[in-house]
């Protein structure tokens, strides 16, 4: 079976050198191994994602010399599949709705932190501080019926009990240099949000599902997503999805050593192109042959 690679940008901005590194690395690895290279547009956030960014991404990838299979999978076109997966997890008793607003959660966390520490996930977001897991089923149903906004959370304790110990094979390295067989630690994420009333999915859920549906066998992405792989392994196990191999690659940093962000003009591909750079210059700058 030939390996299947993918590059999965979110069209909430234009591409920078960090994206170029990830896209070219995937493309080069696919070529060198006689594998396939797929593109996936992660556009589940209708507020931040825009068609003009998506168009700009395609242009920049073509300019870099990258070619991909069509049709491109656009996550916004697959909400029904994500909804079905959430329903399946719900039917296993692994999901509960919580009704606090973001502001309420911030206030609850501040109260807890005033009396000591409160756990945070690997992205720095506080664990859910509420007790919605204890709400009786009738009360949950009543509040959803009445139109209240809600988030659907994974009951991490129940999910861990069902899934058991999980691991993955890492061919790159985590932020601490971890490689080889890695023990997953999804508990580091607490009762994370799988879906919201207005968006029937989340980054973690759609990535886990799409990698499986697209037949991806090699997930090559930045070290900043190393810890997210623990959640993806958990969701794969719960939804009985195949498990790809992972390679988390180094991050391209700016002169001050910071991870690049969408707004960093000086390292944007469009800006570099306008300043006269060609694709060979881009490869040289990010250390690719
Ligand atoms: N869409 C994610 C991003 O742009 C990448 C997802 C992934 O590679 O798993 O950061």
Furnish the topology, listing elements before pairings.
Layout: E1 4-7, H1 17-32, E2 36-41, H2 51-64, E3 73-74, H3 79-91, E4 95-98, H4 102-114, H5 137-145, E5 151-154, H6 156-163, E6 167-170, E7 180-183, E8 193-196, H7 203-213, E9 218-222, H8 228-238, E10 245-249, H9 269-274, H10 279-285
Parallel strand pairs: 1-2, 2-3, 9-10
Antiparallel strand pairs: 4-5, 5-8, 6-7
The structure holds glutamic acid (GLU).
Report what the structure shows:
With 289 residues, this protein is of the alpha/beta class. It has two domains: 1-76 and 258-289, HUPs (Rossmann fold), CATH 3.40.50.620; 78-252, Rossmann fold (3-Layer(aba) Sandwich), CATH 3.40.50.620. Helices cover 37% and strands 15% of the residues. It contains ten helices and ten strands. The strands form four sheets. The chain has a three-stranded parallel β-sheet with strand order 1-2-3, with helices on one face. A three-stranded antiparallel β-sheet has the order 4-5-8. A two-stranded antiparallel sheet has the order 6-7. Helix 7 packs across helix 8. The protein starts with a strand and ends with a helix. Glutamic acid is lined by residues 8-10, 42, 207, 221, 225.
């Amino acid at each position: 079976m030939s390996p299947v690679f993918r590059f999965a940008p979110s069209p909430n901005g234009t591409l920078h050198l960090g994206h170029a590194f990830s896209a070219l690395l995937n493309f080069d690895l696919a070529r060198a191994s006689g594998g396939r290279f797929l593109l996936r547009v992660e556009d589940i956030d209708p507020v931040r994602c825009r068609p003009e960014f998506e168009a700009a991404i395609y242009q920049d990838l073509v300019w870099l010399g990258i070619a991909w299979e069509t049709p491109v999978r656009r996550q916004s076109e697959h909400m029904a599949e994500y909804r079905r997966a959430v329903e399946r997890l719900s039917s296993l008793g692994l999901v509960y709705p919580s009704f606090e607003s973001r502001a309420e959660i911030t206030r609850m966390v501040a109260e807890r932190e005033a009396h000591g520490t409160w756990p945070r996930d690997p992205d720095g977001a506080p664990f859910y501080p509420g007790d919605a897991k204890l709400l009786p089923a009738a009360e949950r149903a009543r509040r959803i019926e009445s139109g209240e906004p809600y988030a659907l959370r994974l009951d991490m304790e129940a999910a861990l009990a069902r899934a058991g110990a999980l691991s993955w094979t890492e061919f790159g390295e985590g932020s601490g240099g971890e490689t080889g067989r890695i023990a997953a630690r999804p508990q580091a994420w607490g009762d994370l949000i799988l879906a919201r009333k207005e968006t029937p999915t989340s980054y973690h859920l759609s990535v886990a599902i799409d990698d499986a549906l697209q037949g991806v066998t090699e997930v090559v992405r930045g070290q900043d997503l190393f810890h997210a792989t623990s959640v993806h392994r958990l969701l794969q196990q719960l939804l009985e999805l195949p498990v790809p191999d992972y390679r988390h690659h180094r991050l391209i940093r700016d002169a001050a050593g910071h991870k690049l962000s969408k707004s960093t003009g000086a390292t944007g591909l469009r800006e570099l192109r306008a300043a006269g750079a060609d694709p060979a210059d881009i490869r040289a700058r990010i250390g690719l042959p």
